[in-house]
Design brief:
Elements lengths: L1 H24 L3 H31 L7 H51 L6 H18 L2
Length: about 140
Amino acid sequence: MESNLKKLEHDCKASWDYLAKISKNDTSSSMKQKINDYLNDVAQRIHQLKAIYRIAFNRLEVPSLKPMAVFKMVIEFALEYRTTRDKILQQRKRLADKRERNKTRGKIWALEQSGKEGGSEVSGSRRLAQTQMNAEQVALSFH
């Protein structure tokens, strides 16, 4: 792994040299800019891979494990973390929805009462629909 990273770094540096030689003779700035951006991205990725390699083998002190075994553990941990986090977020959303239903339930009853007191008569079918809706909300809040 270390030799592969060194080879990648050497090839990247050689590419920079080739780009410098090409740019002396070529005036096409758009292609030069694209190649320059690409080489910057490659150099950054190589640097990140070297840092990950150094951390995995030196700081974590796992020289006896193969790199794939170490990274497999990291991937499994990330998967467990993500699923647990998603479950917690779903639970928080359900509780927030339940709180919101409880807040609006009282307002609907208050509006129904104010409609009766204000002199406006609520039709029988509308009253039946509101009563059914309130009953459904009460049933949902107990679950």
